[in-house]
Structures are given as C-alpha cells and as structure tokens.
Automatic annotation (TrEMBL):
Top-level division of the source organism's lineage: Bacteria
Alphabetical UniProt keywords: Aminotransferase, Pyridoxal phosphate, Transferase
InterPro entries: DegT/StrS_aminotransferase, PyrdxlP-dep_Trfase, PyrdxlP-dep_Trfase_major, PyrdxlP-dep_Trfase_small
Keyword Transferase: yes
Gene3D superfamilies in the record: Aspartate Aminotransferase, domain 1 (3.90.1150.10), Type I PLP-dependent aspartate aminotransferase-like (Major domain) (3.40.640.10)
One of the GO BP terms on file: polysaccharide biosynthetic process
CDD domains: AHBA_syn
Family (UniProt): Belongs to the DegT/DnrJ/EryC1 family.
Modification type N6-(pyridoxal phosphate)lysine: residues: K186
GO molecular function: pyridoxal phosphate binding; transaminase activity
Taxonomic classification: Bacteria, Pseudomonadati, Bacteroidota, Chitinophagia, Chitinophagales
Name the record gives this protein: Aminotransferase class V-fold PLP-dependent enzyme
Length: 402
C-alpha cells in the first residue's frame, strides 16, 4: 500500500537538493534557494498527473480538508453529509470550521449510499463529502446528480485513493474540490503533507491564501502581501515536498504492483464459496491498495479474523478488531463531543443526536468485512504463501462455524 515501501535514492536526492541550499520554506528567499521550488514543482506535477487545473499543497490531509471546507465557504451551522466509515480526520475538518458532520450509512461499496445521502438532506445541508475509502471510489455519478439537483457542494476526501479513477477522471478531481493525504502510510508519501485539488480558480486562490495566514502572495515581498481574509499556517515544507516529488514519479509503478498483487490474492479468495467482494463502481479505477471482502455472517467473520490472527496474518477489520480510527462504532470521543474547549451549541446538539443514532445497515456491512492491505514488497513466493495460508485459515474457521 504505502509509498514508503519504495523509499530510495530518488527521495534522498530530492531532499538533498533542499538541504544543499538550506531553504526549507516554500515561499520567499528567492536568491539563496538557487532556483529550487520543490513545492511549486510538486503542485505542477499533481496537476499534470491527475488532470486538474489547480493544486494547493498543505501540511497534512486533515489541513487539506479544512482548507477546502473554508475555501468552499462551509462554516457555522452548515451540514456536511459524510459516511459512517472513514478516518477521524473527515469529521475533525468539518468540526474545525464550525460545521456539522451528518453521518449516514455506507453500502457494500464501503462508501456513501446515495439513497442514505438523499434521505439526510435538510435545508441546512451545504456539502456532500464522499470518502473514497481503501483505494476505491464512491458512486460518483449518483452523488453528482444529487448535488446538482439540490444545489450542494461536492468535496471528495480522496486521501486514501491516490491514483484511483472513476470513468477516466482522477478521484479527487471530480467534485468542486478534492483532497489527498501524503502522510506516511498513504499511496505516495511526503512524510506528512496533503493537497487540495480544484478546477475553480476562485476556490484555488482561497486555498492558496488560507494555508498561509491569508497572504495574497501579490506583494513585492512577503512583508508587502495583503491579507484579504484570515487564514492559518497549513504550509508544507520544502523538505516534505521534495520527498513527494520523488514519490509521484513512482506512482505508476506503485499502482501496477498493487493491482498485480491485489489480483493474485483475490484469485485465492475467489475459490471460497460464500466470500463476496466489495462493490467497486468502476473496477478499472480501483487503486488496489486494499482487497476488501465479505463473509456471509458476522460470526463467521469474527472466527476468520481470529484464525488469521493466530496464523500471523493481519486482517483489517474495523468493527471489532485492529483499529479504532475508521468506523463510527468506536468514535465515542465524537459521540460524546469530547472537545478540550467549549463547542458551538449547534454542533453539540447534533453530536448529542448522533450519540442516540444507530447504524444497523453500516454495522451489518462492517461486521462482515475484512480489508487486506496490499504490500508493495511482497515477492511472488510470499504472496503464494499468504494466499494459501489465508485459504486454509478461512476454510478451517468456516468449517467450525458453518
Ligand atoms: C489519512 C486520511 C486523512 C487525513 O490525512 P492526514 O494527512 O493523516 O492528516 C483524511 N481522510 C482519510 C480518509 C484518510 O485516510
């Protein structure tokens, strides 16, 4: 899955370029930087690679989401519809701009169920935020149509699906804005970093200023810049951007390995009657960083995960095991509005309501789902061994729990 598995001379070279000049900041210092503009270069590469007009790098994917929300004008009291299965950063960004996360069910695509989205629309809804989880995409045609019919903004959290596409368009470039994360475990990494992509010049200019204290970047130097609005410091450093530059050149290679390994592993699981696979709205566009599959019942899934664990095989299950970050069932801090400071009353009211809401449909899906992370470094032999071990573990668990 992650680009860090392909760390090498290319990354070191780009970082060394920056270390040679010592100019670690992306703005200013025009003389000493000797023509080195790694962040600008990476933004250009992102536009070319993913086919968008504008890209604004940020210090993280979370910062990218927050920046995108602000640039889209999402703020106090606005409702943002998002899925019950994502990463905590998605709702953190919504809350940070004063807006209200409205969580709705997923379907077997592991992303937003368009029918659940429709049912959640109120006069306060401002934005729909699909999250392209585990490398694969949401039902974008349906979601786009819902946005159009209801005059809503579409913001894609594509942090986990770099390189994925939907009907030929890069995930993250389909909505009004979209984001990637380049944290250490994503498909390509900067160490830490993120990006907002958009085709809208106005949204881009707002992102550009917001990530740098509201600077308009039009002065003769930084001191002379004007500040048309209040921003933050969500800047990426030149060091991080340099890593990303080496990584983005490896993206095709990363995707090819992921797709090959994913397909091989899948061919083993396809031999088990009863196993079904995640719905992928455009199978060609899966970035293949995960293979997500279902067993018929929750009990069988639990037994299989236990057996895989006993065999030393990591089997991502976000319902009971492994991980408290991704599914609403484990988000007590959100449901109980555990902030360090006073929360705005509209948010508090919404979260109190959320704490009372159950998600039987999502529970039914997530409790039967296993997501296997695809490694770039598996050899053919390791892959074969893994596939055979998984088959044996699954058959054993299913036999006992038939
Ligand atoms: C990783 C991730 C983010 C946030 O990215 P960071 O760079 O870690 O802040 C947001 N959304 C999803 C779905 C993610 O997986």
């Amino acid at each position: 899955m992650p680009g860090f598995e392909l760390w090498g001379a290319e990354e070191r070279k780009e970082v060394n370029d920056v270390l040679e000049t010592g100019v670690l900041m992306r703005y200013g210092f025009d003389g000493p930087r000797k023509g080195m503009w790694k962040a600008v270069e990476l933004e250009t590469a992102i536009c070319q690679t993913f086919g968008c007009k504008h890209a604004q790098l940020t210090s993280s994917g979370t910062a990218a989401l927050t920046t995108a929300m602000s640039a889209l004008g999402i703020g106090y009291g606005d409702e943002v519809i998002m899925p019950s299965f994502t990463f905590v950063a998605s709702f953190e960004a919504v809350l940070s701009v004063g807006a209200i996360p409205v969580l709705v069910d997923i379907d077997e695509s592991l992303t937003l169920d368009p029918a659940a989205v429709k049912a959640a629309i109120t006069p306060r809804t401002k934005c729909i935020m699909p999250v392209h989880m585990c490398g694969s995409m949401a039902h974008m045609s349906e979601l786009k149509a819902i946005c159009k019919a209801n005059n809503l903004l579409l913001l894609e959290d594509a942090c986990q699906s770099i390189g994925g596409t939907y009907k030929g368009q890069a995930l993250g470039t389909i909505g009004h804005a979209g984001t990637f994360s380049f944290d250490y475990v994503k498909t390509i990494t900067c160490g830490e970093g993120g990006v907002v992509m958009t085709n809208d010049e106005d949204i881009y200019e707002k992102c550009d200023g917001y990530t740098d204290h509201g600077h308009d970047h039009k002065g003769v130097d930084r001191g002379a810049d004007l500040h048309p609005f209040i921003g933050y410091n969500f800047r990426i450093s030149e060091l991080n951007a340099a890593v990303g530059l080496a990584q983005i050149r490896k993206l095709d290679q990363i995707l090819a390995i992921q797709r090959r390994n994913n397909k091989t592993l899948r061919s083993y699981l396809e031999q088990v009657p009863g196993i079904s696979f995640r719905v992928v709205p455009d199978p060609e566009g899966d970035n293949a960083s995960f293979l997500s599959w279902f067993l018929p019942t929750a009990e069988q899934t639990q037994a299989v995960v236990d057996e895989l664990k006993a065999q030393g095989i990591l089997a991502g299950n976000f319902y009971w095991f492994n991980n408290n970050w991704h599914y609403i069932r484990k988000w007590d801090h959100l449901k109980f509005a555990a902030t360090l400071n006073n929360m705005n009353p509209m948010q508090k009211e919404a979260l109190d309501k959320l704490a009372e809401t159950s998600f039987p449909v999502s529970d039914g899906i997530m409790s039967r789902c296993i997501s296997t992370a695809i490694s770039l470094s598996w050899t053919e032999e390791q892959l074969k061994e893994k596939g055979e071990k998984m088959l044996a573990a699954i058959n054993k668990a299913l036999l006992v729990n038939a």
